[in-house]
Amino acid sequence: MRAPARALFAAGLTLSALGLAACGGRFVSPHDAAARTTVIGSGRTVADGGDSTTPTTSSAPGSGPSALPSLPSTASHPTTVPTTTRAGSTASEDPTQRAIITDYEAYLVDLSGLDDNLSKAYVGPLASVTTNRLAQASVRQAATLLAAQEHGVGTLRDDHVSVVMTGPASAALADCQDEDHFYLVNDNSGTPDPFIERGYFVGSAQMVLQNGHWLVDVFTTTHVTCAAF
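^ that's the sequence the OP posted. Answer follows.
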């Protein structure tokens, strides 16, 4: 039975307040996931034992600035962001919430492509639906995976989406992320990373309205399981 969207959202907000555990190393260096709680876009990492000042945007050894594609100096927001809402997602009838969900799902698609061998074709589209700090963090994470000789397979997808407006220009979103069909593999062997936990996990995002466009500012994934699609 699928978890009710309201309960899923409540779980997402509670975990956001406590600090979210990254799902299987999805947004931390491979093999380091079990010990860290990571909130992408926050600029900091919290270890299980306490606070750390280690930025979430730090690159792995060998993934210096030369390995990173350049972000647009000013993100060009398209008039219409490609709709990536798929069957099963909770598409709100409210135009504001629908715009938030559309931009969020566009981010998931672009992030998945970026994590596949640091595909530069996704950098521009990703930067158009995120704040600059999240775009930077996402690109550096992709560089970390590249340096670790791993890449993503599949596309990160969501379901049971719930949106709560937290202000006139801000919103909190919670969802169930399919990290069973999207996962990391070794570049050479093509086998899944054995240290990565796979499944369906609660995720959340903080959205902000800038220049008439909803942007993803903080993106999180957890170890909390949710109902399969």
